[in-house]
Amino acid sequence: MENLATAAPDDVINERVLSKLKWRSRRGLLENDIFVDRFFKRYESLITVKQAQGLMALMELSDNDLLDLHLGRKTLAQVQPDLDRDDVSEVLTMLRANPKGQNETS
């Protein structure tokens, strides 16, 4: 993705990169779309280059593998060992974060 290779890992991504990231993050399973949409609603103005790279790596996974990660049924190492790294783990934690005022069953 443009500008990510030359930017510092802690730089916040710009609107153009954010737009491309959102487009690339569209999924075939509604459940995944819900996680991803919630992620962007909460963090879109704060996403760093490092987090964008982690999210892009996650978006390369199949929908079923991504859902298994979201739900904690599998670990990164089980799905794809080379994804077991800090940037991907950070984004996965952000994707799993519960919005305020919601419990696990809602």
TrEMBL record:
<comment type="similarity">
    <text>Belongs to the SdhE FAD assembly factor family.</text>
</comment>
<dbReference type="Pfam" id="PF03937">
    <property type="entry name" value="Sdh5"/>
</dbReference>
<dbReference type="InterPro" id="IPR036714">
    <property type="entry name" value="SDH_sf"/>
</dbReference>
<keyword id="KW-0143">Chaperone</keyword>
<dbReference type="InterPro" id="IPR005631">
    <property type="entry name" value="SDH"/>
</dbReference>
<protein>
    <recommendedName>
        <fullName>FAD assembly factor SdhE</fullName>
    </recommendedName>
</protein>
